[in-house]
Write a structure and sequence with these properties.
The chain folds into two domains: 290 residues, Tachylectin-2, Chain A (5 Propeller), CATH 2.115.10.20; 192 residues, Sandwich (Jelly Rolls), CATH 2.60.120.200. The relative contact order is 0.14. The two termini are 17 Å apart. The chain is mostly beta strands. It is 1% helix and 44% strand. One of its GO terms (biological process) is carbohydrate metabolic process. InterPro entries: ConA-like_dom_sf, GH43_C2, Glyco_hydro_43, Glyco_hydro_beta-prop_sf, Glycosyl_Hydrlase_43. This is Family 43 glycosylhydrolase. GO terms for molecular function: hydrolase activity, hydrolyzing O-glycosyl compounds.
Length: 522
Amino acid sequence: MALPSSDLGDGTYRNPVLDADWSDPDLLCVGDDFYLTASSFGRVPGLPLLHSRDLVNWTLVGHALQRLEPVREFSRPQHDRGVWAPSLRHHDDRFWIFWGDPDHGVFQVNAPEIRGPWTRPHLVEEGKGLIDACPLWDEETGEAYLVHAWAGSRSGVKNRLTGHRMRPDGTGVLDEGEVIVDGDRIPGWFTLEGPKVHRHDGWFWIFAPAGGVETGWQGAFRSRGFFGPYEERVVLEQGETEVNGPHQGGWVRTAAGEDWFAHFQHRGPYGRVVHLQPMRWGGPDGWPVLGDEGAPVAVHRKPDLPRQPRSAPATDDDFPGGRFGRQWQWTANRQDGWATQHSSDGLRLTCLRTAHADDLRRLPHVLTQRLPGIAATAEVELRLDSEEPGARAGFAVLGDAFSWIGLQRHPDGSVLLVHRFAESAVTGAPASSSGRWGRERDAAVSREAPEGRARLWIEIGAGARCRFSYDVGGGRVSSGQVFAATPWRWVGALLGLFALAPAGAGHAGAASFTQFRITATP
């Protein structure tokens, strides 16, 4: 099961086509199939792989990155680090994904098929602040190139794009690189980033946004030579629409010759949702025209492609045999023993001992999925199978602030229904930074759960305002005040399942989750 498709069923679609945090999308057409990847930051597995036959109905088919590297560094949560703005390409009968890690450099993975097997990450160019990398294999000349942007927080450099000649096998660059677009030299342009480079009609084209994710615009640049000089034009901006900062995406051409552009819209706690814009190359002097003459469309005719079943990435899960679906990601590199397989349905999470039992933001073993971008209710059944005093398990809304509801073993042996929350870091810095941490506090009075079981609900309303409720045997009861979900610095809020126990020795038991569902609110 999944949330509703954006396909309206009458030959039109409604934006966004992916109404959740599929940040910094890039897409690709190979034959009759379309593929999309997105930023995954510090979550594992990373580099999600989505498939569609019509650019509107999407399914999640896998991930290209099973572990983040350096492995030890990503053994703890790094919520806003890791994989930034990947580029998806098909060359030499292989799929390629390049991305920039702002702390380590440009990486790539490749595979013969979209479902793999994918190679381990290969470091193409080492350096601080290298982000948003995109390769280009020029079929006209046989040359290979790489373009990337800069993170000012790591390098002190931003608002410019750097180009390199690249080895044709994608394993490294052949020069020191040079600035090919300097945003400081373009009046009114700032925070230039997210380049996607193409060859079209004898030109080198770079699609790159500027102006910041909340209020920016999509730009296009063209030059007769890869290293410039480039001329620029704004090709998509908010205008009179409600789509703030239409930003950073990819161009794709269908087999029928239609052009389309996918980009994100920053929506605070919901993250960066994906919109699909019609595109044509019939503008003045050969420039592309996106959306409705440069403004985002809300509803539009679907691409001229065969009709497809309505679909959206899966959310629901019965956890057959203890396995979880592709929609779930850990908050750091996975270790053995976090989840165990068994002969029946249900997710069995080990109550791992931790010194950070009172702060979910520090835990690597929280199993998460994206917060839906529409009003919806998420629910799950929980059973706590631990006799360890202080052991707990629950259902959370996780961001720079968090709130969770679940079960905890009391020292007298009883199991209590508890509801807790923590505010954002006191300094205002993201919880993954070195700032001070908000302290977990009770959101409601605890009550006994006689059988050690509970049905838990999180109702997600307008503005990602969340209401919690539970049933421990006497009917559904509302719990605590409304909690306003908060994002990380670059990442939307997440729904999460967890189990833990206080620091100590020995096995501390487990918790079981069953019948996870997300239902759109009528």
